[in-house]
Amino acid sequence: MAARTVDLKKSSLAEDQRIEERQAISAWNATIFQDGDASLTYGNVVDITGSGACLVVSKETSWIAENTTMTLHVEAEHRRFTRKAEVRWLKTHGESLHFGVHYIDHVGFDPDTHQLNIDEVKVCPTCALKLPGNIALRQKALPFLLQDNVTHIACSAPPNSQTLKLLERFVKTEIKLWQAPENLLTIKLKQVYGSNPGQPVQALPNAAANNNQDSAVNLGDDLLYAAYMRQASDIHIDPSFDGATIRFRTDGQLEVYNKTNTHVYTELVSRLKVMANLDIAEKRSPQDGRFSHQFVAGERRIDVRVATLPTKYGERVTMRLLAVQTDSLTLDKLGFTFKHQDMIETFLRRIQGMMIMTGPTGSGKTTTLYAAIRMLMAERNVNIITIEDPIEYEIAGVAQCEVDAGDKVSFAKALRSILRHDPDVVMVGEIRDKETADIAIKAALTGHMVLGTLHTNSAAATVTRLLDMGVEPYLVAAALRLAVAQRLLRRLCKHCRIARPLTELEAISIGRPELKQKMIYDPCGCIYCGGKGFAGRIGLYEMLELNEDWARSVADGEGESQLVLKMREAGIKSLLDDAIDKLIKGETAIGEVIQIASSW
Description:
Layout: H1 2-21, E1 29-34, E2 40-48, E3 52-58, E4 69-75, E5 80-93, E6 96-104, H2 125-128, H3 133-139, E7 141-147, E8 150-155, H4 161-171, E9 174-179, H5 182-193, H6 216-229, E10 234-240, E11 243-250, E12 253-260, H7 262-275, E13 287-294, E14 301-311, E15 314-323, H8 338-348, E16 353-358, H9 365-379, E17 384-388, E18 399-402, H10 411-418, E19 425-428, H11 434-445, E20 449-454, H12 461-468, H13 473-479, E21 480-492, E22 498-501, H14 504-509, E23 519-522, E24 534-545, H15 548-555, H16 560-569, H17 575-584, H18 590-598
Parallel strand pairs: 8-9, 16-20, 16-21, 17-18, 17-19, 19-20
Antiparallel strand pairs: 1-2, 1-4, 2-3, 3-6, 4-5, 5-6, 7-8, 10-11, 10-15, 11-12, 13-14, 14-15, 21-24, 22-23
Helix pairs in contact: 3-5, 6-7, 10-11, 11-13, 13-15, 17-18
Protein name: GspE/PulE family protein
Family: Belongs to the GSP E family.
Pfam family, one: MshEN
């Protein structure tokens, strides 16, 4: 008994010594929220791991005790995350309270009881293709996530011991099995591996692999397939002095996918240039091209736009992936409020007038216009012709015209010709100059519905931009019926988001100090979102509907500032207002909204 007491004293002295030697990690701060209470405490992070952390707060923080649960929000210079946590130990040291927490799985998914909705799972291609397609289809098993050296596998039934050994031999990590409905899993397996069970699938390369052994053809195919599976919008290949970095833009964020050596990079660029019909001998001038890529058994296809740019260490390649499936492009899936969707649908039921989508590149303007076209086609029989640069989605029943890089087919030339083809609806991919704007407005005044896009920062700025192009104010007032400003924010994963109060500093940063203590949600990460905390993106909208009085004001020469004042007096919400509404509803995170507020 005496020996045990001595051991405990030694352990306590050792812990005291470790606390004295520890120093707070530079720029790592924590905001600690008491569960079931709006009160919060600020502290410093001493050390941190993937499963817990050690923190320091003032000794006066009386509510922290062993087994207390809390919500922990940690911010570092380039990282922020939120976790549910439980206090495992605490010790007073001078005027400070040191305590250790262990993260809690607040989602509570148990492989033994939870049936996986495989349709909502983000499949990691590097993980999935560790298992050959013929085996995956035969065993009804889909590896979809590698996390903390554990491979998560969806299966339709509990596998036997031989199947487990087979899976472990291929994935080479610990395995965690999740049950999924057999019919949905079969569909997902065919999407990942194709429908030919006898056709093996190449394993994707990774940073640790010897890429010299991979042919340029296989590497290019694997790269495109990985981007397709991750639902990436762009692939970036950036050369450096010792090779190249390959990155994907997924949900608007860049993530590193792979790194290759110089030899593999050179072969890969040559392969991609051949596919895009570019001159492989020309390395000192920018080039643009495109190609269509067919995946397994001809079941899936993507269109790829390729651009090269000479840099110090070689050609930089950027590829934009353009999906050819448009079944999901409907207005009710884009994040419109009921009022906003009603305004767009009301306009689309007209027979003439102009609607302009506005926003920066990549803000989803064209996607919204395609969704509007699908609604028009579903409700009535109309002749729709589009002018695009490039054609991003193929829509059956729509005549789509692509602008030619050699200026044989420009927006203005194509639009002038289209009006002789008896269209009901004309979509102009981008209004870039006075000539295109004039023809589009005159088309809207002569009985056509015109849909178009512009690059401005707000809905009211649409009027200013058209006037700057040289369009007469009375023509803008007569033709423009609806201007829609749009942005995209990442959407929180609905399975793992964590609720907490909005802090005073955060409320001030978005210009709404009155929202202090309002409940919001933070990203966390789970098996559905691949540990990211986000799943897809959601649109923000600001709508300016030119009624008779406002149109008369535009014709009289009123500018953007007067229109904005009238919009606010009329209670029309700005992009920031829409972002804050979606924040309070738990659809996006405070970090995303701050980006909108900082540019407002």
